[in-house]
Amino acid sequence: MPLIGDKEYFKGIGHIPFEGKDSDNPLAYKYYDPARRVAGKPMKEHFKFAVAYWHSFCGTGADPFGPGTLQHPWDAAGDPLEAARNKADAAFEFITKLGFEYFCFHDFDLVQEAPTLKASEKRIQDTLPYLKAKMEASGVKLLWGTANCFSHPRYMNGASTNPDFRVLARAGAQIKGALDATIALGGENYVFWGGREGYMSLLNTKIDKELDHMGRFLGMARDYARSKEFTGTFFIEPKPMEPMKHQYDYDAATVIGFLRHYGLQDDFKLNLEVNHATLAGHSMQHEMEIAAAHGMLGSIDANRGDYQNGWDTDQFPNNLNEVTLMMLTLLEAGGLQGGGINFDAKLRRNSTDPEDLFLAHIGGADTFARALLIAERILTESNYSELRQKRYESFESGNGKAFEMGKLSLTDLYDIAVAQGELPLYSGKQEMLENLINRYI
Q1: Is 294 a catalytic residue?
Q2: The domain boundary residue, chosen from 336, 368, 383
Q3: 356 and 429 fall within a common domain
């Protein structure tokens, strides 16, 4: 039942239980058992599953070829603040019925943007007390907040990278407001997604100036939040393109280089998205491995793309092989640093029943849970780790160890190569490892 107010939007659906893999109840978890301990801690702590306010409660199914197919009852109120409260009722009813403990939002997911900056700021501030009450009553927490500095026409040429300083200043004001809201709600992290931070044409773009502006802007946002005693982590979410032809946060490696160049690496980590990884020509495991190698594996947006479409479809995750490889990396990296797993995924345009939103999240959670269990078995029961380690055993002693310790020169390498003569070939055993993974799946 609703925690505040008298509305119930998902009637006939109660708390989603864990019933195990033999259950044929579509409204029950088959693998996601929040309390089950995996690799030393409860499953829910590995994931920190979060519901995305924007897709789940704001998305209507609209696409470039037609209007939305979903008409949300919580949007019916004519007054924006009443509509915001109704949306919060629906959101917290849904999250608590799922049994999740987190949500996340863009600023104007919470309440409709007003015609002016000050009026928009007031609307958000007026909405916060109701959200705080919902959070206190339910125990649901805020994984992270962010600002939508990409949808409004004013941001058609970017936000922090806009060639017009007036637009940059407006973005700064909006992000200040989103940071204030995140802090007020006890948000654990804050995310930057530079949807328009890039270019459509190099003919009218000065990349060096725009990158400098973005680096300075992020530093200012960090400094402001720290001055307000925000201790959480800031995340950058990589994406190579769409809506821009090229976005400056192209992929994990690009973002890490950017953060280090502008001295932001101590406060920022990465929020990686599966569909963004594939758009960049990578696997999600690749992006996670790159982030983990630099100590920046912060958080995950869980979804998938359509393998026959070259754009960001944001479908709910159901590829067990893909997610198992992700969970191998997650466990070997020691987990996420600060963040969790946010279902940045939306229903298909022709999925119009209220029940469908539950089915989608249940399936996504079960996919991650099943993959985590498989990954743990691979690491504890098989020789997977041993096979990987064996490829590098020549660096564990002798000259290989001396190289890793920085004790050899290029001339030393030359002398070693001459002395050792021609070398045999050693197999990478790729097919053996692929078969091993499939066997455990």
Answers
A1: no
A2: 383
A3: no
